[in-house]
Amino acid sequence: MAATQEDALLRIEGLSKVYAAREGPVRALDHVSIDARRGEFLSILGPSGCGKSTLMMIAAGLASASSGAVYVDGERVVSPRTDIGIVFQSPVLLDWRTALENVLLQTESRALERAASEQRARALLTQVGLAGFENKYPHELSGGMRQRVSICRALVHEPHHLMMDEPFGALDALTRDQIGLDLQKLWGERQMTVLFVTHSIAEAVFLSDRVVVMTPRPGRVDAVIDIDLPRPRTLAMRDTPQFAAYNRQIRDYFLASGVLHET
Amino acid sequence: MTPDTRDALHAGAPPKIAIEEVEARVQLAQANRERRARIAGFTFPALVVVAALVLWEASARLAGIPAYILPPPSQIAAVMVEKMPLLLRHGWVSTTEIVLGFLLSVIVGIPLALATFLWPAFARSVYPLLVSSQAVPKMAVAPLFIVWFGFGLMPKVFIAFLIAFFPIVINTVVGLAAIEPEKIYLARSMGLSGTATFFKIRLPNALPSIFGGLKIAITLAVVGAVVGEFVGGDAGLGYLLMSANGSMDTPLLFAGLVGLTFIGIVLFLALEVAERFAIPWHNSVRNPGTGESG
C-alpha cells in the first residue's frame, strides 16, 4: 500500500456508501481506501453483499459515493468515466448485433475510425478464440463465447483501465480457467490496470498482483495481500505450496471475519 | 480381462458399426421427425376444421335446423360466391376503417408512450388519466362519436383507434423501461449520449414488446370498426351483419363473419411478417431448432 501519488492510477479515499431504507440506513461500504497502481492487476475479493460491485461502480463513476472520493490521475471522478473498459457478470450484448458489431459498438460510440477499429476488433476476437464467429448473433454463441465478446468490447478502444465485475461468475469451471488464461495474456500485452471484482479466492490469487480482501457488510478493507508468484501464471502453479499458502492466508481472513465458519 | 470373457461379453452384442453410419442414421431420423412435425402442423388443424364442417353440415341437414338459425356451411359458401361483389365492397370499407384506426393508434400511441417514458411529469399527470380512460366502456362511446363525426368513415376510425391505442402505449412503455441496467451503464462508460443510447440501445431493445402491443392492437381495431358500423353506418361488414340480421338472412350474416375473420387474420399475419423483418434476432420470430449454432 506504499503507492505514491505518481504511480497510483486510481485512488479510492475514505469511500462510504449508505442506502436509505425503510428499516433504517444500510451501510454498504464503510471508509474504504484503495490505491490501484498503474499497470497492476488488482482484485477486490469478498463475499456477496460486501459492496464490492458497488465499489467498482463508484470507481467507474457510474454510481455516487455517500462520502469520500475517487481520484484518477489526481482528478476527482464526478461523472461516468469514459477512459475505461467495463465487463459485467452478464455479457450485456445487444441481440440485434453480431459479435463483431457488438465489439464495434464501443468504437462507434467514441466515433473512432472504422477500418482501424474493425481490424482491432477482429484481432481481439481471434485472440480469444472466436475467429469464424464474427458474424454470429449472440443467440448463436455459448455463454463463454458471449462473455469473450464482451471482453473484446471492453478492450477494443485500448483503455488504460479495465474494470470487471465478477466476469466469470456465470461460467463453468473449465471455461473460467481458459478465459482466465486468455485475460492474463491480454493484460500482459497491454499497459493496462485491471480492477477485478470476484468472490473466488483461487481466481483472485491466480490472476492478481494484489488482492484486496473485504469484510462482509458493511464492506471494509480487511487486508491487502501481495501475490508474489511469477508471471505468466500457469495452471500448474495452482498446485504449488506458495499458491496454497496464499489461498490459506485469504481463507483465514474470511474465517476470522465470519464469512466462512467450520461448524 | 481375458480374451475369453471379452468374447463372452460381445457374444450377444450387435455388430459394431462405424460412428459415421450412426451419424447418418441419427441425421435421417431427425430429418424424418421434423418433416412429420411440419406435415402434422398443417394437416391436423385442417383435419379438425374439415371434421367440424362435415359435422356441422350433417347435423344442419339431418336435424332439419332451419337456415335462418344455423345454415349449413355449403349454403354459406354458396352465398359467399353469389354475393362476392357485395362482400368485397363492404369488406373494403371495413378494412379501410381498421387500417386507418390502427395507423392512428400507432401515430398517437407511440409518441404518447415516448412522452410518458421520457418526461416523468407527463407520466405522473397524463398516465393515470390514460389508464382510467380505459375503464370507460368504449362501445358506449360509439353513439357519441356518431353524433360528433356523422355516419361516415371517421367515427369508425376513431372508435377503432380508441380501442386499439391503449395496448400500444402500455407495451411501448413497458418495453422501454424493461432494460438491463448494465446496458445503460455500458452506454455511459462508452460516452454514448442520451439520445444515441435511446436510439441505439433502448428503442431496439423495446421492439419485441412494441410488436406485441401492435399485434393486440390490430385485432382490437377490427372490433372497434365493427362496433362503429353496428352503431351507425351504411357500409362495412359490420353494417352488412346488422342488415342481414334484420332481414333474417342468416347465411349472409355468416358470410360477413367469415369475411371479418379473414380480414383479421390477414392483417395479423401482415404484422407478423413486418415483425420478422424488424426483429429477426428475437426469439418470438426465431424458430427454435433451426437456428444454427456455433
Short account of what is shown:
The complex is a heterodimer of chains A (263) and B (294). Chain A is α/β, with parallel strands linked by helices.
Structure explained in plain terms:
The complex is a heterodimer of chains A (263) and B (294). Helix content of chain A is 32%, strand content 24%. With 263 residues, chain A is of the alpha/beta class. In chain A, the strands form two sheets. Chain A has a six-stranded mixed beta sheet with strand order 6-7-8-3-9-10, with helices on both faces. A four-stranded antiparallel beta sheet of chain A has the order 2-1-4-5, with helices on one face. Residues 1-5 of chain A have low confidence and may be disordered. Chain B is 80% helix and 0% strand. The longest helix of chain B has 44 residues, at 19-62. In chain B, 29% of the residues are buried. The A-B interface holds A 57, 60, 62, 80-82, 84-86, 88, 90, 92, 94-96, 105-106, 109-110, 132-133, 136-137, 139-142, 145 and B 180, 182-183, 185-192, 196, 200-201, 204-205, 279, 281-283, 286, 291-294.
User: Which range does the strand content of chain B fall in?
Assistant: under 5%
The residue ranges of chain B in which pLDDT falls below 50 over 5 or more consecutive positions are: 288-294
Count of DSSP strands of chain A:
10
Helix/strand structural class of chain A = alpha/beta
Characterize the overall form of chain B. Answer: flat
Largest sheet of chain B: none
**Biggest interface, chains and residue tallies:** A-B, 28 and 25 residues
Helix percent of chain B reads over 70%
Order of helices and strands of chain A: EEEHEEEHHHEHEHEEH
